[in-house]
């Protein structure tokens, strides 16, 4: 692949207007780092009013963002004089400010949303119909289920006592039958399903969560959960994992402990991804990558204001092997509280976080400003590449998600009990940024595909033969064209729940007219590969992805 051109540094002036409660729009933004070979950063909005603790992209290209109701007053008033009256709130019983917003990617603007009960450190997933189901939180919100429908005027709907148990720091995953499983949470060594059905209304014991609980520290909150291609769940907590048959409450397999034995889950927070599932292979391999975290004892040391250097290792496990073993790799930068985002071309972006300490109030130090790109198909020792840095520390309570245009939306950071903007090492962060990986550089525009058909929002079935038409203005290499499909995740606390990328069966690239081509694609043939719902479909040429289109598989 050609080396992207170096761009001269550009000087620009940002002008922001902020009307206290009204939705606001900034211009298209300006490039603040322009060395294309390491990606570019763009400041989108100077102030979204809240801190982006949780984020989810919906199929209308809007991102639901929320923090917590008991931070105190946010910087964004609710519209029309609306106020939240909650006598159980631990900070304000009457609060006229928003603690959730909807970010419109197309207009670069936000809309204040109303959430009644506390959503702090909660979890969620998008259902097959596109509705976001968010579960749990803190205090009066810990057994609440909440629904957000993707429409221009929709707001949160709450289902009191929608959960069988209190869920705080839990993990959700979509199942092949279109239910969600909700696993764990503080002092919850069990799981349950949502929505409830006649024979599955309760919480069910999961002893693995007891076994992975470090007394007075935990290190097993927000467990890393993935749907395996055999229909079972891979569950990682602390420093080890199981394969779990949730229907029969049976551990199918116990995987080895990570060789260094160090914890990787909250509060010694690392991150994880399931690497892309390549459906072109006759036998699909399933691999999980866990990166960063904090050495054993770091949380106890942080309580004493001694901030231990974060882990610099990743551990990779091929869970489809008969006798799987973790393979250790070394990152260029140590990182705790990082996020990991799957990119359309199958690479992994490791972003945000700190190089010392742990998650928790004031327990992180030394922000890691440089993202790192991980290339899973390269040989060990050649997989990591350091990207250009941001200027904004993204510490505890930061998030990052992939957008349909290939950028990565980055927000959040608030290591304080309340909103705190002065006199602290890392002030509460209200700015919203986008990181553009180097594949978006204009030097690659002649290689970048543009999807012509099918239209965005198309319905597709399972095992369906599909013709995707696209254009490329430069010279096409038909042997380097692929089609990928991404499930946008619910992201919080360094874990992207339900994040899943599939490389579809494809071939027979044809030139149908000047600069216009077709590729034959077969959609996934099983709900275990791709549960019902909305995905973003990309055409990738020589590692350069198109802008995606939304498809709904059902």
Please outline the helices and strands.
Blueprint: E1 40-45, E2 54-57, E3 62-66, E4 84-85, E5 94-95, E6 100-104, E7 109-113, E8 123-126, E9 132-135, E10 145-148, E11 157-159, E12 171-174, E13 180-183, E14 190-194, E15 204-205, H1 207-211, E16 224-227, E17 233-237, E18 240-245, E19 250-254, E20 271-274, E21 277-278, E22 287-291, H2 298-303, E23 313-318, E24 327-330, E25 339-342, E26 348-351, E27 354-357, E28 364-367, E29 372-374, E30 384-386, E31 398-402, E32 408-412, E33 432-436, E34 450-453, E35 458-460, E36 465-471, E37 481-487, E38 490-492, E39 495-497, E40 500-503, E41 505-513, E42 516-522, E43 533-541, E44 544-545, E45 549-553
Parallel strand pairs: 21-40, 35-45
Antiparallel strand pairs: 1-33, 2-3, 2-38, 3-6, 4-5, 6-7, 8-9, 9-10, 10-11, 12-13, 13-14, 14-15, 16-17, 17-18, 18-19, 20-22, 22-23, 23-24, 25-26, 26-29, 27-28, 29-30, 31-32, 32-33, 34-36, 36-42, 37-40, 37-43, 38-39, 41-42, 43-44, 43-45
């Amino acid at each position: 692949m050609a080396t992207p051109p170096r761009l001269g540094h550009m000087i620009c002036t940002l002008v922001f207007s902020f009307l206290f409660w009204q939705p606001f729009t900034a211009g298209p933004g300006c490039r603040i780092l322009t060395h294309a070979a390491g990606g570019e950063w763009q400041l989108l909005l100077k102030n979204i009013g809240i801190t982006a603790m949780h984020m989810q992209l919906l199929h209308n290209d809007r991102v639901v963002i929320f923090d917590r109701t008991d931070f105190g007053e946010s910087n964004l008033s609710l519209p029309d004089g609306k106020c939240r009256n909650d006598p159980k709130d631990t900070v304000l019983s009457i609060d006229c400010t928003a603690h959730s917003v909807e970010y419109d990617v197309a207009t670069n603007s936000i809309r204040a949303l109303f959430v009644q009960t506390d959503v702090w450190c909660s979890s969620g997933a998008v259902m097959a119909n596109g509705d976001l189901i968010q579960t749990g939180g803190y205090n009066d919100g810990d057994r609440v289920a909440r629904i957000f429908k993707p429409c221009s005027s929709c707001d949160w709907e709450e289902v009191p006592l929608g959960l069988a148990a209190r869920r705080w720091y839990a993990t959700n995953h979509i199942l092949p039958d279109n239910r969600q499983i909700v696993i764990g949470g503080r002092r919850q060594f069990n799981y349950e399903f949502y929505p409830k059905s006649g024979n599955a209304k309760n919480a069910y014991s999961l002893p693995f969560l007891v076994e992975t609980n470090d007394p007075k520290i935990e290190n097993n909150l927000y467990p890393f959960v993935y749907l395996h291609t055999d229909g079972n769940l891979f569950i990682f907590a602390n420093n080890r994992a199981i394969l779990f048959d949730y229907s029969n409450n049976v551990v199918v397999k116990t995987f080895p402990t990570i060789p260094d034995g160090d914890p990787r889950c909250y509060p010694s927070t690392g991150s994880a991804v399931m690497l892309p599932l390549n459906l072109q292979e006759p036998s699909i391999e399933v691999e999980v990558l866990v990166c960063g975290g904090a050495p054993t004892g770091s949380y106890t040391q942080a309580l004493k204001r001694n901030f231990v250097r974060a882990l610099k290792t990743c551990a990779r496990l091929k869970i489809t092997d008969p006798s799987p073993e973790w393979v250790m790799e070394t990152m260029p930068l140590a990182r705790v509280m990082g996020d990991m985002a799957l990119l359309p071309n199958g690479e992994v972006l490791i972003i945000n976080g700190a190089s010392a300490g742990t998650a928790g109030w004031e327990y992180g130090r030394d922000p890691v400003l440089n993202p790192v790109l991980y290339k899973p198909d390269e040989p060990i020792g050649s997989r990591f590449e350091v990207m250009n840095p941001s200027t904004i520390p993204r510490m505890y309570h930061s998030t990052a998600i992939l957008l349909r245009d290939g950028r990565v939306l980055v927000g959040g950071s608030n290591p304080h009990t309340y909103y705190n903007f002065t006199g602290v090492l890392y002030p509460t962060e209200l700015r919203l940024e986008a990181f553009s990986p180097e594949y978006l550089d204009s030097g690659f525009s002649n290689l970048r595909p543009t999807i012509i058909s099918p239209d965005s929002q198309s319905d597709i079935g399972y095992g369906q033969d599909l013709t995707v038409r696209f254009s490329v203005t430069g010279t096409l290499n038909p042997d380097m064209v692929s089609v990928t499909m991404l499930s946008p995740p619910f992201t919080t606390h360094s874990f992207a729940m339900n994040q899943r990328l599939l490389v579809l069966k494809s071939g027979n690239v044809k030139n149908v007219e000047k600069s216009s081509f077709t590729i034959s694609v077969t959609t996934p043939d099983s709900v275990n590969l791709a549960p019902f719902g909305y995905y973003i479909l990309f055409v990738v040429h020589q590692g350069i992805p198109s802008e995606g289109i939304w498809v709904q598989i059902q």
